[in-house]
Amino acid sequence: MRRTAIPAGTAEALLLLSERRGLSERPGLSEGQGLSPDTLLLAAYVRVLAAVTGDSSVVTGYLPEDSPEKSPLPLWAALSQGSWAELVTEVAQLADEVGRHAPQALDELRAETGRTEPLFDTVLVAGRAPGPEDLTDGTVLAAGLARSGDRLELVLSHRPDALDGEQADRFAGYLLAALRELAERPGADHQEWSPVPEREVAQQLAEFAGPRRELPDRRVHELFEDQVRLRPDDIAAVHGTESWTYRELNERANRVAHALRRGGLHDEDVVAVVTERNLPWLVAVLAVFKAGGVYLPVEPHFPADRISGMLVRADCRRVLTERDASPGLTEALAGLPAVRADHLDTLLAEHHPVTDPGIPVAAGQSAYIYFTSGSTGAPKGAVCEHAGFLNHLLAKIDDLEITEGRVVAQTAPQCFDISLWQLVAALAVGGRTLIIGQPDILDTARFIETLDTGGVEVLQAVPSYLEVVLTELERSPRALPRLRHVSATGEALKKELVERWFATFPDVALVNAYGLTETSDDTNHEVMRRVPEQASVPLGKPVANVRIHVVDERLRLVPLGSPGEILFSGVCVGRGYVNDEERTRAAFMPDPLLPGERMYRSGDFGRWLPDGRLEFLGRRDAQVKIRGFRIEIGEVENQLLRVDGVRDSAVVVTGEGESRQLVAFHSGEELSDATLLESLGAALPSYMIPSRFRRLDVLPLTANGKIDRKALTRLAGQEESAGDGVELRTGTERRLAELWSQVLKVPAGRIGRASHFFDSGGTSLSMLRLAIALDRVVTPVELQQHPVLAECAALLDRRAAEAPNPGRQPVDSHV
């Protein structure tokens, strides 16, 4: 129980309002309004609840004074724009309605609505102070007034296990501030009011910011050059059977850098690198930085339209590539005569100096551009500077304990921003980069063997891939004695996976990393050496020199622990989107709380935990992440609309975790899936292509004329459970269908003989899980080659017949 005296001035003003005296001095309240202090408190109460929950629609329990019912009834309040006086009027009407319906018992209301869970978790009691008896049926907080003459006292009763004393005191402070504002400025817009006091603003800005750190006046490539002088003959990078020393790597990068400058490259000119993930890729990246250029990674497997769009948007005139590396690049360059492409082997064979170019590169110069999915149909190129790049790299080096001699695995695709720190972090401190090829990544057993034989000490992967690795290790245990730190990023990290991780690797730290391409990659690290106590895995505290604001729709700081949009400020924030002023203005802006700093609106929602760690709550827009790739639904829909014959389009997401997939609906002409796949495949990377297409005569609409995405999501789910109509015939087919159901997390009835693994939502990760579940009777490559269930079952039967014990059933396994 917490009792707080309402300051005399505020109490007097509230009593004057309730007694309809002094109203001529209180604009917005009419002479006819009879308002009790409890009604004024109720108005303040719902306004504070809206602020702390981040939701303008509030449900609270309300027990009217002298009510014949012992239990409070729910009061729904939808807060709209208006003055405090108007809010009081609305709330008074709502309270009156609750009073008229009081004879209806709460259990009857639940039965009528079909809800068994508590309808509210807060209560306001009228006419008296609340007590422990009001904390029933899931209620964690009850509020009310105690009155003695002209003295008013705010009384809160709360459950300490759900709301601690500090949180209750803060809530009381918010309520008192709201009452003071209502009493003193009843005509003011209540939406303009914020409950966060100055001391809490100061706490969020100072205590919850990343530690201050003076950055060295060095660029990342210069840190590498320092290591070259210290250890020229140490191994710097390895890929497959090939390895280069620091000297060899540096001399190759220097040759290419000199070639770029002699070829007319100027500071901050964009250079696209189109190679596979190999040692020449590393040479090209370092060369671009050394030459003062801006690195633009381009996947060699991207379609020509995608590559062309990236080069044009970035105003890129130079490309570094390998021979026959990218058919899409060849096609794109045919339509871009101003773009010059150089083969790395040609530049390395030319007689360019092997010495460091020594070109001055300022901390504020652009370092790289990474393209992410864009809602308008065109990808966005996020530009980040060298200072932000260096700040992030040093955070990784510190928190993952990357030191001299440490081996860091490079696993991420080039278009993924995390690929860059994986590539160069070890080189900045005298360690070694091990580039793990895609074939090894797609075969979990080979991947684990590579980690072991390569002596990997630092690894980063998306959680869904870590889950596959753990599944393989649970079936075929293998020690990884050199492994020290593993970072999970790109997807939400679930507590269940953390529990499995520490059960397998109790001495290997697991780091939950969070950040965005626009903020120079990861901004938060939660370094875990044991399973966290709370239900979800926190994002951690900001790294050095990073400031994070959690704000409401008006960009004001929200109360501690309340949900809001996550904004970033400081050296981590990039310049914006290349040659895209409109989308840059929408997301990048000056920080109103920290003059002189840039701020970025992430679109992510989160909240502060009491100890200053951040918790992720979701997205505010149509952006999703599938297998770690950030996808704007709008970009896929816009590309679908460009297909001849498509009139309207909508894309929804089905499934959970690694089984999430895109399902596209369209109206217009009858078009085959092959036609749609071909059209989208010419413009979008494979991870953005929907798994299924469905034509409708007309897309369903909501009452306000918008496409009804909820209806489409339900329809997609119904189709998932419908099956392909082809009955399973053999025991192997039935057992394989059961495994598909477990691996793909889809109803077994949906799977038939003609079902296609990847059309059913399969991914490279779920394919790996299937191979493990089959005890590796077949390889992942063979599964790729036999994606139809009947074909795969026939392959398994052949393998069983070839085995020494032909009676063995290869699919008698589990996931």
From TrEMBL:
InterPro entries: AA_adenyl_dom, ACP-like_sf, AMP-bd_C, AMP-bd_C_sf, AMP-binding_CS, AMP-dep_synth/lig_dom, ANL_N_sf, PP-bd_ACP
PANTHER family: FATTY ACID SYNTHASE, NONRIBOSOMAL PEPTIDE SYNTHETASE
Pfam family membership, one: AMP-binding_C
Listed name of the protein: Amino acid adenylation domain-containing protein
Lineage: Bacteria, Bacillati, Actinomycetota, Actinomycetes, Kitasatosporales
Residue ranges constituting the Carrier domain according to the UniProt record: 727-806
